[in-house]
Specification:
Helices cover 35% and strands 22% of the residues. It is α/β, with parallel strands linked by helices. It has 3 domains: 9-69 and 210-287 and 434-476, FAD/NAD(P)-binding domain (3-Layer(bba) Sandwich), CATH 3.50.50; 98-103 and 115-201; 293-427, Polyamine Oxidase, Chain A, domain 2 (Alpha-Beta Complex). The strands form 4 sheets. Strands 1, 2, 9, 10, 11, 12 and 18 form a 7-stranded mixed sheet that branches. Strands 7-6-14-15-16-13-17 form a 7-stranded mixed sheet. 49% of the residues are buried.
Length: 477
């Protein structure tokens, strides 16, 4: 916004300059609504942003943009968001994955951007389950995950109607849970359907330059349609009278008003901003259960991972008889996680300047937050190699000695990092297990978009912002 003054009143104020917030802002401004997006940090993107360290730019949350479909596809989430925001496909520069894997003890499932390879892999590894697997796929295809009136179902329970093998159930859930579940060891079935389609029916892609390509495209479009941003200035209080939010007080003391407020901060985080707390509101513990967060190590290599023996794009791994997706009883649970090699997308005749090797695993926020500064640094130094060694067991062509010999730089973030940059309670990456599917709150003009509304991933976050803008602002005239 530069030095421009804010208007005293807007048609809509959006809290959070992440994917959902920017998409909502663009959609409303496209129809001549006056829109202000406010953000507490200096960088846009929210959970899917980037940062610079020693001259390098690192993606924060991006392993993959899900919902990839090739040019010419119609009626998919990616095509819908491009049409709704009037973006060109080339604006996102999406390059497809080369192939990924779910790796459990003695069993692998391979998949890519198209369902055939996963079906063949299941038929080979679990021949007795193939009919049930196909029936599960047909059931997923027939479901409407956007029906806000539908009952909340357990994905594990629904899968149990079709599959007899706990191992196959765990292997199919592993990518789904790691890429979007806020519930321990399970996920709401409607979200399972969204993620199944996003990961298995469609697939993974990545812009050559990473997430900043998407952020630049959204910011450019937001400016084109006349939207306003105020960065490094979050919301201090939401003032209300009766059933309406009457004013938005910013952290610099400015107060502005709006006909509608869309918050991408999370349900409990938004409630905490209210000057008049809901006396009936429950505390975070019963509302959310044990919130889930992660650590991630990022290793910069002096050679492409494929040259060192790692050719797959993403590997979801687990070393135990059963898959435990739950808040660990230690700082980190290295038994399972996600390995990502960002170089292993099909960039055509382009390549990344350096090699990258990322490992993500479940972590406990409370234990990390309780550490003093010296102990915090020491634990990061201790867990960095432990997590790498655990992950590399599932990359046969790449050993720890090779990684060490080719390492140029390293970094690591923890749940405390997530809390600092997103303000999510307990650094919860996917927010609360209780989703507000219709985006409504106790106020008639305050709505949720993003993580706690229930849409997941970069594509899902943008669609959440679009759908909430359409439903709660544009449809009201």
């Amino acid at each position: 916004m530069g030095g421009r003054s804010l208007k005293p009143h807007y048609d809509a104020i959006v809290i959070g300059c992440g994917m959902a917030g920017l998409a909502a802002g663009i959609r409303m401004a496209m129809f001549d609504r006056t829109v202000l997006v406010v953000e507490s940090h200096n960088a846009p993107g929210g959970l899917n942003s980037f940062y610079a360290l020693e001259g390098r730019k690192y993606d924060v949350g991006l392993h993959a943009v899900t919902n990839y479909v090739p040019p010419g596809a119609k009626g998919t989430p990616l095509i819908k968001l491009l049409r709704q925001l009037r973006l060109r496909r080339e604006d996102l520069d999406l390059c497809p994955q080369r192939g990924s894997r779910v790796a459990f003890p003695g069993v692998d499932l391979h998949f890519d951007n198209g369902f055939a390879s996963l079906g063949e892999s299941v038929a080979s590894a679990f021949p007795e389950e193939i009919d049930g697997f196909r029936a599960l796929r047909a059931h997923v295809a027939a479901c409407d995950p956007f029906d806000a009136s539908a009952p909340v179902l357990s994905a594990r329970e629904v899968m149990g109607r079709f599959l007899r093998s706990p191992l196959l159930t765990d292997m199919l859930l592993c990518p789904v849970l790691y890429y979007g579940s806020a519930r321990e060891n399970d996920i709401d079935f409607d979200q399972f359907v969204i993620l199944w389609r996003s990961l298995f029916e469609e697939g993974f892609a990545r812009p050559h330059e990473g997430v900043r390509v998407i952020i630049r495209a959204l910011l450019k479009r937001f400016r084109e349609v006349g939207g306003e941003r105020k960065m490094k200035c979050g919301v201090r209080r939401l003032h209300s009278e009766g059933a309406r939010v009457t004013a938005v007080e910013l952290e610099d003391g400015t107060t502005v008003t709006a006909d509608a407020v869309l918050s991408t901060a999370g349900a409990l985080e938004t409630e905490a901003l209210c000057a008049a707390p809901d006396p009936a509101a429950r505390s975070p513990a019963p509302e959310s259960g044990r919130r889930l967060s992660f650590v991630e190590t990022i290793t910069v290599l002096d050679a492409p991972p494929a040259d060192l023996g790692a050719e797959e794009t993403i590997i979801f791994f687990n070393d135990s008889e059963r898959f435990h997706y739950e808040r660990p009883e230690a700082l980190v649970d290295p038994r399972s996680g996600v390995i990502c090699f960002p170089n292993n997308y099909d960039y055509g005749d382009r390549s990344l300047d350096e090699g990258f090797f990322r490992v993500t695993a479940l972590a406990d926020y409370d234990r990390w937050a309780a550490l003093g500064s010296d102990a915090y640094r020491a634990e990061k130094e201790a867990w960095y190699p432990r997590l790498q060694e655990s992950a590399l067991r599932f990359v046969p062509g790449l050993g720890m000695d090779t990684v060490r010999a080719h390492t140029r730089a390293i970094d690591m973030f923890t749940p405390c990092t997530v809390k600092r940059f997103t303000r999510h309670i307990e650094g919860a990456v996917y927010g609360s297990p209780r989703k507000h599917r219709d985006g409504t709150t106790r106020f008639d003009n305050l709505f949720l978009a993003g993580t706690d509304q229930g849409f997941l991933g970069i594509t899902g976050a943008m669609l959440s912002g679009i759908s909430m803008a359409n439903r709660h602002v544009l449809s009201r005239g």
